Amino acid sequence: MGENIVAYIDRMKNQMVESLAQLIGFPAISPHDGGIGEVEKARFIAKLLLEKGLPEAEWHNAPDEKAPEKYRPNLIVRIPGRTKKRLWIITHMDVVPEGDSTLWNTSPFKASIKDGRIFGRGSSDNGQELIASIFAAAALKEQNIVPEYEVCLCFVADEELGSLYGIQYLIKEGLFSSDDLVVVPDGGNEQGDFIEVAEKSILWVQWTVTGKQVHGSRPDLGLNACRITNEFAMKLDGALHEAFPEKNELFSPPLSTFEPTRRLANVSNVNTIPGKEVFCLDCRILPSINVDGVLKVMEHIAHSEEQKSGAEIDITVLQRTDSTSPTPSDALVVKLLSEAVKEVYSFAPVIGGVGGGTCAAYFRKNGIPAVVWGQEADVAHMPNEYCEITHLVNETKVFALMMAGSKNTFDPLLPDGI
Questions:
Q1: What GO MF terms are annotated (predicted)?
Q2: Strands (E), 200-264
Q3: Tens of pLDDT along 126-174?
């Protein structure tokens, strides 16, 4: 049942809180976002690993001319297991800027502990999971438990701005294989009851409808871009849902979604008929649907509406991220994580997909099954970001039980003095 591992981690709570508080003191903001990068934080992590009795970290430095040291660090610590198969837990060191500092009740980069929470930038995203992974490995080490698999803790750079100097760099370096078990604890919910194994494609498009602006009293002399846009948007919505009705119950909602979102201001006064309208669609498309096919339907409807109305309708793709093959729900990494979650929380987690997108997609794109899981408050990137201490402790237990593997390793004798 893993009672001894769980009990031991409960006793480590104060150490975990102290370490996360220290971690928050390193403002690892990307040099591409006005910061100094992750090097100082990486040095702190490397030191903490040694203090916890874990092996010395490997440094895999991605060249980056904008960084003060001209590189972005990625750390890997490897803990031998009873088998050669590898279990990776991948967390990121970088954080987003604090934003408007007047919205913070405390200093963003000086941890504050109150009411069972640790406040500070990066406390939740991704410091909570980073510290949990270290203390999970330390718990096994201090109890003389040999992990079931080789445990590889990986602390990456650049997640917040696309992972070019982090996960993408490490994948290109050939450090992962399709046999690896990969957990990316960089997303989750308050309950910790959801394991993400798939993502929809993301397509953001902007439409510009150009007609002819005239006085409100003489619409016959113009071409009302507002009316044309309204009619076009409704036809577009109907055509897309008709063309792509597929469902996949792995996702919630199970359909592809084509949502009108932003609409820019047109004219400033009521009595002017606008000659230009700009609006956007946020599309989250099931993996079974080809994104190029979606764009073809959009372009067909636009061309048809151009001929009917006489307006000019142009499309701009603002973002496109095609989905990758989902991690199978019966993959070993899913089973291992599910068992550990059930052991800690006494419920079976839901396996499903999200609207997109997480950095686990980089692994899936390269044929490496990966899962995303965490128990965390939805406060990432917000002022007064915080980590729930109970979440931190629970995640540490889950990671430790995953590392321990088979149940016959769960009940070693505790070391003296514990």
A1: hydrolase activity; metal ion binding
A2: 201-210, 214-215, 257-263
A3: 999 999 999 999 999 999 999 999 999 999 999 999 999 999 999 999 9
Residues 178, 50, single domain; the answer is yes
pLDDT of residue 407: 55
Residues 124 and 267 in one domain: no
Domain that holds residue 128: 3-199+324-409
Query: What is the length of the chain?
Result: 418
Alpha carbons 60 and 71: distance in angstroms, whole number: 9
Token representation of residue 286: 């099931």
Asked whether residue 416 is domain-assigned, the answer is no
Which tokens sit at 256? 């592809």
- Tell whether 414 is covered by a domain: no
Q: Residues 293, 329: one domain? A: no
Two structure tokens written together for 257: 């979604």
> What's the rounded Cα separation, in Å, for the pair 112 and 22?
11
* Separation of alpha carbons 137 and 134, rounded Å: 5
Find how far residue 46's CA is from the centre of its chain.
24
Supply the DSSP string of 284-346, one letter for each residue. EE-TTS-HHHHHHHHHHHHHHHHHHH--EEEEEEEEEE---PPPPTT-HHHHHHHHHHHHHHS
Among residues 158, 159, 277, 343, the one annotated as catalytic is: 159
Q: What per-residue confidence (pLDDT) applies to 358? A: 84
Q: Is there a single domain that holds both residue 243 and residue 313?
A: yes
Number of domains in the chain: 2
94 annotated active-site: yes
Q: Examine the domain organization and report whether 344 and 360 are in the same domain.
A: yes
**Is-contact 152 49, C-beta < 8 A?**
no
417 inside domain: no
What is the structure's pLDDT at 406? 55
Which residue of the set 38, 64, 94, 180 is catalytic? 94
68: region left, alpha or beta (phi > 0 left; psi from -120 to 50 alpha): alpha
Q: Mark the ranges of the chain whose per-residue pLDDT is less than 50.
A: 1, 408-418
Burial 109-138 (b: 16+ CB within 10 A, else e): bebbbeeebbbbbbbbbbbbbbbbbbbbbb
Interatomic CA distance for residues 415 and 11, integer angstroms: 13
Out of 295, 321, 347, pick the residue that ends a domain: 321
Specify the pairing of strand 272-273 against strand 214-215. antiparallel
